[in-house]
Amino acid sequence: MTEIGKGKTLKRHEVLKTLESIKDDCTEKLVTRNEATGILLNLEKQKTAVMAVVWNVFLERINKVNVQIQTSIVDLITVIDFNESLCKFFVDERRNFKYFEEKAMELSVSKQYTKDMEKRQSKRKKNYDETPDEKMRLTASDTFRVNTFLVFMDRLVSELEIRQKAYNRFNEKF
Question: I want to staple 112 with a disulfide (CB 3.0 to 4.6 A). Which of 48, 65, 116, 171 is the partner?
Fold first, then answer.
């Protein structure tokens, strides 16, 4: 797994510092200050930090593969191999949510997911024919992992597999 570079962490802090200064600057338009406040609030969320870590790792790997593919001496078989290795990488990273979450803890201002901070749990009204069984409640971390991270990962792998099939069909013609 790729470690997050210190330079990227510093840039994140610079962005947060800049947004804070815009938010507090009375010479800025109210709309601009409100937008800065909204962006700042979103950047402070745990799930935003997790996705920032995920994207950082993934884009670094994608960039390395693209640099190799774009060399003038690469052939189609090599491109197919690179794409296959990239797909395998993403399948393997699918199991590493805890790693991404731990790295995000270092970046995030908020150490909890938004759902964890809510005081009241909403309850769904039961229909007359439903049994009073309590369905399994997921933690906010698990909810984010299941509803966002895994969906994102599955879609990414699916798109790479589509590309892989296209490369294989093209290779069969030659």
Answer: 116
DSSP string, 106-121: HH-S--S-HHHH-SS-
The answer to whether residues 150 and 101 belong to one domain is yes
61 conformational bin, left if phi > 0, alpha if psi -120 to 50, beta if neither: alpha
Which tokens in the block code for residue 16? 């947060």
Q: How many domains does the chain contain in total?
A: 2
* pLDDT tens-digit series, residues 82-117: 999 999 999 999 999 999 999 888 877 677 776 544
- Model confidence at 55: pLDDT above 50: yes
Please, which contacts does 109-112 make with residues 24 or more away whose CB atoms are closer than 8 Å? 109/16, 109/44, 110/44, 110/45, 110/46, 111/46, 112/46, 112/140
pTM for this predicted structure = 0.70
